[in-house]
TrEMBL record:
Keyword Transit peptide: yes
Gene name of the record: glgX
Key words, A-Z: Glycosidase, Hydrolase, Transit peptide
Record field: transmembrane: none
Stored PANTHER family: GLYCOGEN DEBRANCHING ENZYME
UniProt xrefs under SUPFAM superfamilies: (Trans)glycosidases, E set domains, Glycosyl hydrolase domain
Protein name: Glycogen debranching protein GlgX
Positions of the Glycosyl hydrolase family 13 catalytic domain: 165-577
Organism of this sequence: Candidatus Accumulibacter phosphatis
InterPro entries, sorted: GH (IPR017853), GH13_cat_dom (IPR006047), Glyco_hydro_13_N (IPR004193), Glyco_hydro_b (IPR013780), Glycogen_debranch_GlgX (IPR011837), Ig-like_fold (IPR013783), Ig_E-set (IPR014756), ISOA1-3-like_C (IPR048650)
Length: 708
């Protein structure tokens, strides 16, 4: 057979043989006999490929792209006889230096490929870099040879998700994790049995796109401990997994290690959602470093003022020009790549309101990027979740352009549940909206309850334990004079600020935590639990631990034994949710498409008290035909008492031959506070009311009486 002609070089640069490359795909791609390099810039005048031996301080060669190797605004070239495992590469771009016009070309800078599939330079977490390195984060080639063994995204229905938000390093970095490779993708894989036992069906990983933990690193003022860019909301490369999160990062195997994690999670029925930061980059404002985008095509990639400065709707110095066709296509390529090559099940978009802004910063009525993501065929079965606000003041909860596809972090759910739990006035009516999936927010546009990601805590703010242990934030360890972090926490310390030996206060805190978990997992919508909340993890009142690589962020696994009763409560609440389809429907209760109804009660059955000073609410969930024609589906009832004293709740009448059973009562000490689903305790016959303790919740299950 004749050898194809496009496998042969046509040009030569010193000892390197070349030929014109292929424009697509962008980035570096292994081709027969060599490597295809492709990069675009709308305003550069020339481009040079810079090749390094892996880890070498100086380039081994710099190869200018011949003019004949440029097609449109794309430079593409095949370089033959390269050892893909031993090289790193970057680019130099020629062009105008005219900041007022938005151009910041600087040929002295070696630039990272925006499409790099792997990035060296930070392969071991926290290892101090060489600050004199002329090219600190370096693009590398990868080999697409991973054996997925027929794995594919799970496509779990949205209504069936229970999301568990975690930080890759924090989950197993603590010595008590007892894993072979702490703080890594492999560490998470070792803890899959724990996740499976807990019962979550999805993990949402905080940013794992390559970032630099040494960005803005500094010494903690009191202890001298190094503070990092720990959370990673500052992307360097959108196509590369964080090498420092991989046990195999020093060997360049982070791609395979992360893929193996996804495969093992899928094998155990757990989906993977990535928290992605596509609203800004690590280059910051005009005083920040030139790493990649700024030097390749600043005017195209960033939102700029008429004077050439950076719009800062992110609070991080710059804002990506997401609805520019070039940037939009890059993000489509990026997310398609993660969905196709890493089998990712969905994406949560940080500060997603920015994705709907025009280049001027004005909100768009029909944002091209959001529409493209919603209707893209590769992403058709991926979950798309928006954090529908940004620091520029655009708050779009319930008004985010959804196209029938987008769900949202429901910040109003978080705030309203917190306020009700702490006993604020006037919260009962809005509490009812949140429990039934926020129809006031998502009913008018027919988005349904699965548009609402319900959460009470997340990485940004107090843990669930701290929510009931601190009235105020305590962020002194961040070195910013306690000025950082949110001030509106709607928290309550139960009478004492911080840790205490007071038995009654500690018992109340444990009760409040259980109340919150019970409400979250009984609510219509999609529940999200913060890593460690099921174990009583504390950040000692710090509500913005973005910079700490220590036990403020790490999960202390000794809590698994010390707070085993809290873990058990959370596990059984998740199991209850899985056992009852009533809690997992994709339609609002009481609508034509829903087979079930929600009936509101108060301390009096069938009569909720909606007054401003009311702090008691109950509800019953039932299929409309329950108890009729052989339909024996259970009935669920929940009584919530946010008043400080016990209150008797009159129980609603059940269908004929049904009987009430006690599933959970948070006023009881463990282990009597909750039962296994299906093993609830029968209540006495003809019981008319149930005494619900002060600041407690009760969950009952109505079942048919056993046949004689």
């Amino acid at each position: 057979m004749d050898t194809r002609i496009d496998f042969h070089p046509t040009h030569q640069h010193g000892a390197y043989k070349l030929r014109p490359g292929r424009t697509y795909p962008f980035g570096s791609t292994l081709v027969p006999g060599g490597v295809n390099f492709s990069i675009s810039s709308g305003h550069a005048t020339a481009c040079t490929l810079v090749l390094f031996e892996k880890g070498a301080p100086e380039p081994c060669v710099e190869i200018p792209f011949p003019d004949t190797f440029r097609i449109g605004k794309v430079w593409c070239m095949v370089v033959f006889d390269l050892d893909g495992e031993r090289i790193e590469y970057g680019y130099r771009m020629d062009g105008p230096w005219d900041p007022g016009a938005g151009h910041r070309f600087d040929r002295s800078k070696i630039l990272l490929d925006p499409y790099a599939r792997a990035i060296g330079g930070r392969t071991v977490w926290g290892t101090p870099p060489d600050w004199n390195n002329i090219y600190p984060q370096r693009a590398r080639l990868i080999f697409e040879d991973f054996d997925w063994e027929d794995d594919r995204p799970l496509e779990t229905p949205l209504a069936d998700l229970v999301i568990y938000e975690l930080h890759t390093r924090s989950f197993t970095a603590h010595s008590s994790a007892s894993v072979k490779h702490p703080g890594t993708y492999a560490g998470i894989a070792a803890k899959i049995p724990y996740l499976k036992e807990l019962g979550v069906s999805c993990v949402e990983l905080m940013p794992i796109f390559e970032f630099d933990e040494f960005e803005n690193s500094r010494a903690e003022p009191l202890t001298g401990e190094m503070m990092f860019n720990y959370w990673g909301y500052s992307t360097i490369g959108f196509f590369a997994p964080k090498a420092g999160f991989a046990a195999t990062g020093p060997f360049g195997m982070e791609v395979d290690e992360f893929k193996n994690l996804v495969k093992e999670l899928h094998r155990n029925g757990i989906e993977v959602i990535l928290d992605v930061v596509v609203n800004h980059t690590a280059e910051g404002n005009e005083n920040g470093p030139t790493l990649s985008f700024r030097g390749i095509d600043n005017q195209t990639f960033y939102m700029l003022t008429p004077e050439g400065y950076y719009y800062n709707f992110t609070g991080c110095g710059n804002t990506l020009n997401c609805n520019s066709p070039v940037v939009r296509n890059m993000f489509l390529d990026c997310l398609r790549y993660w969905a196709a090559e890493y089998h990712i099940d969905g994406f949560r978009f940080d500060l997603a309101s920015i994705l709907g802004r025009a280049p001027s910063g004005a909100p768009l009525p029909n944002p091209p990027l959001l529409e493209s993501l919603a209707f893209d065929p590769v992403l058709a079965n991926c979950k798309l979740i928006a954090q529908a606000w940004n620091v520029g003041g655009l708050y779009q909860v319930a008004s985010f352009p959804a196209y029938g596809r987008w769900a949202e972090w429901n910040g109003k759910y978080r705030d309203d549940i917190r306020r009700f739990l702490k006993g604020d006035d006037g919260m009962v009516r809005v509490m009812a909206e949140r429990i039934q999936g926020s129809p006031d927010l998502y009913g008018w546009n027919e988005r349904g309850p699965t548009a609402s990601i319900n959460f009470i805590t997340c990485h940004d703010g107090f843990t669930l334990y701290d929510l009931f242990a601190y009235n105020d934030k305590h962020n002194e360890a961040n070195g910013e004079g306690n000025r950082d972090g949110g001030n509106s926490n709607h928290s309550w310390n139960c009478g004492v600020e911080g840790e205490t030996d007071d038995v009654q206060v500690n018992a109340l805190r444990q009760r409040m935590i259980r109340n919150a978990l019970a409400i979250l997992l009984m609510s219509h919508g999609i529940p999200m639990i913060l890593m460690g909340d099921e174990l009583g993890r504390t950040q000692r009142g710090n509500n913005n631990t973005y910079c700490h690589d220590n036990d403020l962020n790490w999960l202390d696994w000794t809590l698994r034994e010390r707070n085993s009763d809290l873990f058990d409560f959370t596990r059984k609440m998740i199991a209850l949710r899985k056992a009852h389809p009533l809690l997992r429907t994709g339609e609002f209760f009481g609508t034509r498409r829903s087979p079930a109804d929600i009936i509101w009660h108060g301390t009096q059955a069938w009569k909720a008290d909606w007054s401003a000073d009311s702090r008691a609410l109950a509800f019953m969930l039932r299929e409309r035909q329950a108890g009729q024609g052989g339909n024996a589906t259970p009935v669920l009832y929940m009584a919530i008492n946010s008043f400080w004293d016990a209150l008797p709740f009159e129980l609603p009448e059940l269908p004929t031959d049904y009987h009430w059973h006690l599933f959970a009562n948070t006023s009881l000490p463990a282990p009597g506070d909750i039962q296994e689903p299906g093993q609830e305790i029968p209540l006495q016959e003809n019981l008319r009311s149930f005494l619900v303790g002060g600041r407690a919740v009760v969950i009952l299950v109505g079942r048919p009486r056993p046949q004689a």
